[in-house]
Amino acid sequence: MGYRGKVMQQNEAHRLRAKGLTMNEIAETLGVSKSSVSLWTRDVPFQPTLGQLGARRRGPNALQRRKQTEIDDLRREGIARIGRLRRKDFLATGAALYAGEGAKTDGQVIFANSDPRMVAFFCAWLRTFFDVEEARLRIRLYLHEGLDLDRASAFWSNLTGIPRSQFHKPYRAVADSSIRATKHEYGCVSVRYGCSRTHRAVMGLVDALLASASHSGVAQSAEQGPVKPKVAGPSPAPGALP
Q1: Nearest-10 crossing angle of helices 23-30, 3-18
Q2: Domain-by-domain residue ranges, the chain?
Q3: Residue 230's pLDDT is what?
Q4: Over pLDDT 70: what percentage of the chain?
Q5: Which residues of 106-141 are buried (b: 16+ CB within 10 A; e: fewer)?
Q6: Which of 42, 108, 228, 235 has the most crowded CB, counting CB atoms within 10 A?
Q7: Minimum mean pLDDT among 19-23, 58-62, 116-120: which range?
Q8: Is the dihedral of CA 25, 28, 32, 33 positive or negative?
Q9: Angle (deg, nearest 10), helices 87-101 and 116-129
Q10: Smallest Cα–Cα separation from 129: which of 85, 189, 84?
Q11: 84-215 domain in CATH 2.40.230?
């Protein structure tokens, strides 16, 4: 490394130390030894960050590790149980997704969600089973103020394959800290396809799916299934051992 590069590292070490980073953190960030950081920052007043004033950061405890292990195991089990969707499975799954998240008012197909996986699934489903005119697809983006609108728009455009020229004017929401502290980085989108016939076809699938439960015996088996007895005390957490 040349002299200029080392000077740049020294300046960066100064800046990070002044922000309250430890020598270990600076050494890891810059890829240098702790002794070099100590030499470079010996004249920088050190003010620990808020996190360093409390207890030392620890790794996950035994309970957290068991929880994560269970989550990982059940995710793999779910993937194995579902497997690869056949065409008819894909059709029914998309109808179920629209039954829960889609607009029911006649006139246009509208699916809104903040989960990119659901939005991508819906777009693939719509294009697979319906003759979609791409120019009629629209997106409306809902994004909190202070978040990067251009970045969010590019993200959803790439995900859905809908050009930004077909985006409606976005809605910028003002965050209410008394309601929620977290915000979705890319906001929430509604994918819209203005075609009454397509919407009616989608709703026909939804109706058929919901009606099929009574014919297949699903509803009856649910009604006749054993009822768990009530127990005293608080309900156990999901997955808790008896």
Answers
A1: 140
A2: 3-49, 84-215
A3: 47
A4: 76
A5: eeebbbbbeeeeebebbbebbeebbebeeeebbbbb
A6: 108
A7: 58-62
A8: positive
A9: 120
A10: 85
A11: no
Q: Please report, as a single letter, which amino acid is at residue 149.
A: L
Residue 120: both structure tokens together: 């991508």
Confidence band for 117, pLDDT divided at 50, 70 and 90: very high
**Separation of alpha carbons 118 and 192, rounded Å:** 14
| Residue 45, CA distances (Å) to 32, 55, 128, 135, 164 in order | 21, 22, 62, 60, 49
Whether the model clears a pTM of 0.70, i.e. scores above it, the answer is no
The residue-averaged pLDDT of 198-211 equals: 95
